[in-house]
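## Example pair
The file below holds two records. Each record gives the amino-acid sequence first, followed by its structure token line.
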Amino acid sequence: MPTIDANGCALHYETRGDGEPLLLLHGGMGIGGDWLRMFPTEPPGHQLIVPDLRGHGRSTNPSRQFTFRQFALDAHALLDRLGIARVKAIGISAGAKTLLHMATQQPDRIEAMVLASATPQFPPQVRPMMAQMTADSLQDSDWTALRQRHVHGDDQIRLLYEMVRGFATSYDDMAFTASTLATITARTLIVHGDRDPLYPVEMALELYRGIPKSALWVIPYGDHGSVWADRAAEFAAASMAHLARSG
């Protein structure tokens, strides 16, 4: 399982399949292996590029700092190492926020993308939830499960909880306005649950109105992780259909 040096961190990634490159970015506190639930087999004609984000899974984070802007820079570094100039991509939650940064940092590099459970900024109502995140409330069974996914010790796991808690007071990382969203050239599908407890559906509408070439799929009765559950196959099919479109 290869690893590259990406902006000072050891970034673990996997590639599966052959063909057109498709970058898959997992959610916060997740790992690249989560995508096996969405794509148990590779979509025909595609090579999946699946990293563990900085500080997640097998990837390290010597700086002990987390921003979605940095996640995006790391992903660009990975594409550079693989010699990929332009890519299609799917991101969920943290991965989708990372794609927003990638698509505004280097617009020409993202041809098309799917953003699931994204937001242009953290709404006020989610910040108290983030501020309460702590590893101290974890049960032994939780620690066992997390240690299987994040392999660099308990300090890594505690740092991931600190990451979420730190977002409660972060205002300059997720700060996308209509003018910044308007710079995105990627053909974009925005997917959002209408019962998302973190990011109200109005956040998806803001993205839809701001990103020039975008489409919106609101999942009825959907929560923040709807696409990982019983909607996984439907989400995968809709995502691949969107990415295959020519306009």
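Second record, same layout:
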Amino acid sequence: MTMFPSACIWVFNIDIDAALKQIQETAFHYIDVRPETLQSAEPLKHFGLKVSCVELEPGVSSLDGKGPAESKKALDHLKQNIEKARLVEARAAYVRSCSSARHLQGFASGITELAGYAAERGVRLCVEHVPGTALPTAKEALSFVQRVNHPNLYLLLDVGHTLLSKEKPWDIIAAAGDRLGYVQMSDNDGKKDRHWALLDGRLTAEDLTRTLEALTQVGYQGTLGLQLSRKLRVLASEFSRNRNLLLRLQMTTEPKSMKEPESRRKQ
């Protein structure tokens, strides 16, 4: 089964319809959004696009457990964003790690409640590992997910972040198995999370191939979120180049799996 790339559309500094048109013209079928991006899935039908994943809370998670009142306010806000994810028919949504290890207990409590809320609305909830936070590595984020042990809580693996934490994404994928909920991809210099296009930094073609092979082996059925920097000079072209790269690498390992979605074949 082909893992199709999904464009993180919030990086486009243009009108949403213009952004959707650019993504459609680069032959994407899926996008990742933020809660404020869309109010429903209706605008996507004109462009033949679907939402894969919603970033519920840009920046470090607000579920830091700083106090009962603050935690409830943050949780209510995230529940509202889960509702927005449902309205745009997203398959998955995610929050980032809380900022400090001393807040992990409160974070776990809030995440457990949020995971149940998301499950009732058909949205898979993921936790992203973020360098400099309470869960700075993919390994630690996976361990957290496993400790919480909620059936609707998963790991979001950020390949760009693994370059910073010096982890091998294929090892994390193998360890996560069916606890892997979503995958994001970008490249960097190993020092800062620069969201460069793939193969423009430390990431190699061999790294990507091993990562894709590992995803196939664990039966991952999601998309591959491409989170590129808005600072890239020709953003739409970079999205297109990276889309083609990911599909081409999959063709070298599973040539029989490359099939366009039914809706695209009929156009």
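Notes on the second record: Strands lie at 5-8, 30-33, 50-55, 92-96, 124-128, 153-158, 180-185, 224-226. The chain has one domain: 5-265.
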